[in-house]
Every structure is written in structure tokens, then in C-alpha cells.
Design goal:
It is built from 20 helices and 17 strands. Strands 7, 8, 9, 10, 13 and 16 form a six-stranded mixed β-sheet that branches. Strands 1-3-2-4-5 form a five-stranded mixed β-sheet. Strands 6-17-14-15 form a four-stranded antiparallel β-sheet. α18 packs antiparallel against α20. The N and C termini lie far apart (73 Å).
Length: 503
């Protein structure tokens, strides 16, 4: 016990020194990591014209905890190079997925000797050997202004696997603003906020299981458990929906795991084809609790949501849909609009599910969480541009999403008062390809870059080739892309090959 108290006092004293001494203003904050402090003090010890090189975790340039340090490096234009490695045999005893970098900077008090104003820094990411640093396809340059263009809110380092990825992403960012620029708000912005609802680690006691509600005499009616004086709404997890489909899977509980280690069983075609079929969830929340959360922030009729737990190497990274009146857990991020507008939300659903947006997200996503600061710094077409294309977008998004009666409110707010659309897999594929093709045009991405981008989704390609013998998704999108381009050149209206055409 005495040894523990001595160690605890020592740790507390060191932390106090690092945070409050004033010696480490950039890295002596939050959850302090010693490597960041060494990076800061090393730079402080440089002469005005000096340079410093260190082997550091790659998080020095990308993590939220070190963002103030890297912001200073960017703002003072003192970054020389950053060469990022995956630990493939370099350091034994360290996990092979661990990433480190060769980090070279100047003092920041003046440009390093021989450097011009706004000079570029050199980058390589995901290197496995020193030889990779000589690969011209992987090595690229960025100036401080370009880093600020790509990540204007955090000034953290963008990560590209190739020079071409950097060039395409920079081109898009030059033509479109980020979703939310914290210092440059304009009337044409989307004016949305990204957040999450309920944290099951802290708020589990707010929820009840279906069995508990049945035991209390409540009945499952139209998506709710209803009693004489109470009403409970479903809690949705990220694994239960997919792109344009809020009824992708039915959640379950592993026999050995308990509530929080659930499974999900995909709906059958028959269930998808039944618009009255409602997915029951594992947990339910009393309606009043959801009202308290939503008060002043969100209307309860429906919500635009996307999956939080994801990866840049998944089948798809950005997975988005419209959810009905439900609560969501921390595996789901939701969009809070300044004003509830179904047409705007439909356009955003199409955008967030597009391959163009997904590709841009993969250039920014480093971990397994689609964090708010990443979403806000993705380049998107303005609200004006989306609304200008809304006739094309909304008819297709609505047909893809409105396949069940529990989204009737969303359909009506989009101006459609008919029954849910039929679940037709081949038609849904064509609708999605049409949306993907027009978003490539809206972003201004040229054909050869569309071809390249589609090749950066290897799982989509592999599944297509296994099932159809060719990369069907890419080929169909390119065909529609060309038809749209021809329609623009000739001044004619694009005519869908679908019969009947989207309403």
C-alpha cells in the first residue's frame, strides 16, 4: 500500500508539473503522453534555424490529443517531412499494427534554412520498408495552406496512400467547402450538427428488454411497446441498418454474452418485401426519456443516421439511412439539422451513401470511429447545389428508403403519399448506381478518376467478380456517368433505363 501511494504521488506530481509549469503549453494537457512532451521540448530547444528529427508514434500528427502541437507546426510552416511506417519487423515485441513516423521539423520561429515561405513538406504513409520512401507513386507533398484546406478545423495531418489520392482529394476540396468550417459559417452551409444519443456504458439503467415490458403487460404495436400509462421506443444499434435500409438486421443476444454483446441476423427477402414487418430490438427506452433528450434539438418523426463503428478498409465506410421514430446508442451518429427538412435530409442521405463521399471519408478515417471532427472536415457540395439536383436525388433516395410503413412520415414530408415502394434488389442496384454517377458529376470528378476511385473499394470488386464475373458496380456507374455527361453536353434530360422511371 505504501509503495502504491508513493507511486501515485509521484505520478500526480509529474502530471502537475507537465500541465501547470507552463513549459509544455501544447502537449501538457488532457491525457498526457510522454512522447508528445519530448516532441515539444525537442523543438523548443532548437535554434531559430535548426531542425529536429525524431522517431515518434504517428499520432503526433493525427491524434486529437496532440492536435495543438501539430497545429503550431502547420501554422508556423515548420514541417519538413513525415514518413509514416507500419511496424512490419522494425521493433520486435511491438504489435505489427502499431504506427510510427520519422518526423522532421524546424523551430517554428522562422522558416528553416533554405526554406521558402509556404514551402511544401514531404509525406509517405503506410510504408513497410525504407525502400517505400523512394516510391514516387506513394510520396507526395503538401503545403501548410493545403493542410489547412483539407483539415481547417483541426489542422491535423491528412493521410493518403498515394500521390493520386492526395491530388484527387485536394482538387475536390478546392471546389467544395467542408461540411462545417468552424471559423467560416456562410448562408449556403448545410447547418447541421452530428451527435450521438445514449451511451450504454453510462445509461444502461434507462432501458428495458422486451421480456421485461411484456411481463409488465405492455404490447408491441406499430414499433412501440404500449401500456395504459407508458410507451417505449426501440433502441437502434449500428449493426442493424445499412445503406438506405433501416431494416437490415434483427439484433439478438449471445447466450454467453449478456445485453451488450449482441448479434444481428439479416432480414430475409420475404421480410424485406413485407412493408408492415417491424424489427423488434433488444432494448427499449421510455418515450419521455427520448423527449427529454430531443427537446429543442430534434423532432421525433424520423432521423438521418450513419454508422459510427466503421473502417477505411471495410466493404463500405460511410453507411447511412433514414431511421423512423427510435432512440439510438453510441454505435450510431445522427444528424441534427437547424430546421427539420425532409428534402434536405434525403439529399444528404444520397450524398453520404455515395462512393464519392465514401472515398473522401477513407482519406480521413484513421481508426474505427466516424468521429464528428472527421465528418465536419469532409468536402461536400453546398446545400444550394444539392437542392438544384433534388428532383433527381429525392425520387431515388425515397424509393430506396421508403420500403416500410414506419417511414410514412418521412415519405409524406418528401411530398409522397403513396404506399411503401416494393423491395426489388435489381432495381435498387440500378437506383444506387444512378445516384453514385450523379454525385461523381456533382463533385466534378473526371471519368479517369472515377475509374480509379472505384478500384479503391476492393471488397466491392471482389464480391462482384465472384458473383457476376466482372466488376458490375463500377461498370454500371461508369455507363450512367457517360450517359449523364452526354445529356449535359447535348442539353437533354437524362432518361433512366429503369422501367418505370423513378417517380
Amino acid at each position: 500500500m505504501a509503495e502504491f501511494q508513493l507511486a501515485a504521488r509521484k505520478a500526480e506530481g509529474e502530471t502537475l508539473l507537465l500541465r501547470d509549469s507552463g513549459q509544455y503549453p501544447l502537449c501538457g494537457r488532457g491525457d498526457i503522453n510522454l512522447y508528445a512532451v519530448f516532441a515539444e521540448i525537442g523543438r523548443l530547444r532548437l535554434s531559430a534555424n535548426g531542425r529536429m528529427g525524431m522517431v515518434l508514434p504517428s499520432g503526433i500528427a493525427t491524434d486529437d490529443t496532440t492536435k495543438f502541437y501539430f497545429q503550431n507546426v502547420v501554422e508556423t510552416q515548420s514541417l519538413i517531412s513525415l514518413f509514416d511506417f507500419e511496424n512490419k519487423g522494425f521493433f520486435s515485441g511491438v504489435d505489427s499494427r502499431y504506427k510510427f513516423c520519422l518526423f522532421t521539423v524546424g523551430s517554428g520561429r522562422k522558416p528553416p534554412m533554405g526554406r521558402k515561405e509556404n514551402a511544401t513538406a514531404e509525406f509517405v504513409f503506410f510504408a513497410h520498408s525504407v525502400d517505400d520512401l523512394d516510391d514516387k507513386e506513394r510520396r507526395f507533398t503538401l503545403s501548410s495552406n493545403e493542410i489547412a484546406l483539407l483539415n481547417p478545423n483541426t489542422l491535423t495531418c491528412p493521410i493518403f496512400r498515394s500521390q493520386r489520392d492526395a491530388a484527387i482529394t485536394l482538387s475536390v476540396h478546392k471546389n467544395h467547402k467542408v461540411l462545417l468550417h468552424e471559423n467560416k459559417i456562410s448562408p449556403d452551409d448545410h447547418r447541421i450538427r452530428v451527435t450521438r444519443m445514449f451511451d450504454m456504458n453510462k445509461q444502461r439503467d434507462l432501458f428495458k428488454t422486451a421480456d421485461e415490458l411484456l411481463a409488465e403487460g405492455l404490447r408491441f404495436v406499430d414499433g412501440y411497446y404500449i401500456g395504459n400509462n407508458s410507451k417505449y421506443v426501440r433502441l437502434i444499434e449500428g449493426k442493424t441498418f445499412t445503406s438506405y435500409d433501416h431494416r437490415f438486421a434483427i439484433p439478438g443476444v449471445r447466450a454467453e454474452g449478456g445485453i451488450r454483446t449482441g448479434t444481428a441476423t439479416e432480414l430475409t427477402e420475404s421480410q424485406h418485401e413485407t412493408p408492415s414487418y417491424l424489427v423488434q430490438t433488444v432494448l427499449y427506452l421510455e418515450e419521455q426519456k427520448l423527449n427529454e433528450w430531443a427537446n429543442g434539438r430534434l423532432t421525433r418523426k424520423y432521423v438521418l443516421a450513419f454508422m459510427n463503428i466503421t473502417s477505411a478498409t471495410n466493404h463500405r465506410t460511410s453507411v447511412c439511412t433514414i431511421l423512423p421514430d427510435v432512440a439510438t446508442d453510441y454505435s450510431v451518429r445522427i444528424i441534427i439539422p437547424a430546421k427539420q427538412d425532409a428534402l434536405h435530409m434525403a439529399c444528404l442521405a444520397g450524398l453520404f451513401n455515395s462512393f464519392a463521399f465514401d472515398y473522401l471519408a477513407r482519406q480521413k478515417l484513421q481508426g474505427l470511429n466516424f468521429s464528428d471532427y472527421i465528418t465536419y472536415q469532409l468536402a461536400v457540395p453546398s446545400k444550394t447545389i444539392l437542392i438544384a439536383n433534388s428532383e433527381f436525388l429525392i425520387s431515388r433516395v425515397l424509393e430506396l428508403t421508403y420500403t416500410a410503413f414506419d417511414l410514412k412520415d418521412f415519405a409524406q414530408d418528401c411530398g409522397f403519399d403513396g404506399p411503401p415502394f416494393c423491395w426489388d434488389k435489381s432495381r435498387r442496384f440500378q437506383l444506387r448506381c444512378e445516384l453514385d454517377a450523379i454525385f461523381f458529376h456533382i463533385y466534378g470528378i473526371i471519368r479517369k478518376d472515377v475509374e480509379y476511385i472505384m478500384e479503391t473499394f476492393p471488397i466491392v470488386k471482389r464480391k462482384d467478380e465472384a458473383k457476376y464475373g466482372s466488376y458490375r458496380t463500377k461498370n454500371t456507374i461508369l455507363d450512367i456517368y457517360e450517359d449523364l455527361a452526354e445529356a449535359q453536353r447535348s442539353g437533354q434530360t437524362y432518361i433512366s433505363k429503369l422501367d418505370p422511371a423513378p417517380r
